[in-house]
UniProtKB/TrEMBL annotation:
Keywords: Iron, Iron storage, Metal-binding
PROSITE patterns: FERRITIN_LIKE
Domain of life assignment: Bacteria
Iron among keywords: yes
Pfam families in alphabetical order: Ferritin
Binding site for Fe cation: 49, 85, 134, 166, 169
GO CC terms, sorted: cytosol
Biological process annotations from GO: intracellular iron ion homeostasis
InterPro entries for this protein: Dps-like, Ferritin-like, Ferritin-like_diiron, Ferritin-like_SF, Ferritin_DPS_dom
Recorded GO MF terms: ferric iron binding; ferroxidase activity; heme binding
Residues covered by the Ferritin-like diiron domain: 32-179
Organism in which the protein naturally occurs: Streptomyces radicis
This protein's name: Bacterioferritin
Cofactor dependence: heme b
Length: 179
């Protein structure tokens, strides 16, 4: 039977290890997952968020129709939050010792979602494009969170907090489609 008594921290070993490779900053020997893989996954999250920012920004400007003001305001708010997600992922890449990848030449191929803009700028079509994109990132981010497991709690919490906002975005869009 597992009890809390089983948890023994070898503080002496951890103190010795912490003193080694100080240049790695927050990345210590207890980091439980392939760091380069996490950096690469986060760089694809950055690409995804930038593409979502581009799409929402484009749609906010293009929106036409009777509910234009309300939908445009929602797209603008989502766009801001997508850019914030990109910046938070970039900050984490940097903490892990990687280079945040904002390279525009590879953004679209790295992103999980498409930069879809309906030709006629019809509100419902734009709302559906964005809802599809949100549903895709909700699934891919859930997969990332499951893969991270308990190995990198900080990246996991970052992704969980972003996921929570993507779920709110999807919910907002469903409400707007329904009105
Ligand atoms: Fe996002
Ligand atoms: Fe979103």
């Amino acid at each position: 039977m597992t009890t809390t008594d089983d948890f023994v921290l070898d503080v002496t070993r951890i103190r010795d290890q912490a003193r080694q490779r100080m240049e790695k900053g927050p990345v210590t020997d207890t980091y439980g997952v392939d760091k380069d893989r996490v950096i690469s996954i986060l760089n694809d999250v950055i690409a995804t968020e930038v593409v979502c920012w581009l799409r929402y920004t484009r749609h906010a400007i293009a929106a036409t129709g009777i509910d234009r003001a309300q939908v445009s305001a929602e797209f603008t708010e989502h766009a801001k939050e997508e850019m914030d997600h990109a910046l938070r992922a970039a900050e984490r890449v940097s903490q892990l010792g990687g280079d945040p990848d904002f390279d525009p030449t590879t953004l679209a191929e790295r992103a999980h979602t498409d930069y879809a803009t309906p030709a006629d700028h019809e509100l419902k079509a734009m709302l559906e494009n964005n809802l599809l994109a949100e549903r895709i990132v909700i699934s891919t981010y859930q997969e990332i969170i499951r893969w991270l497991g308990d190995h990198d709690p900080t990246t996991r919490r970052l992704m969980e907090s972003i996921l929570e906002e993507e779920e709110e975005h999807a919910d907002d869009l469903v409400d707007l489609i329904g009105t």
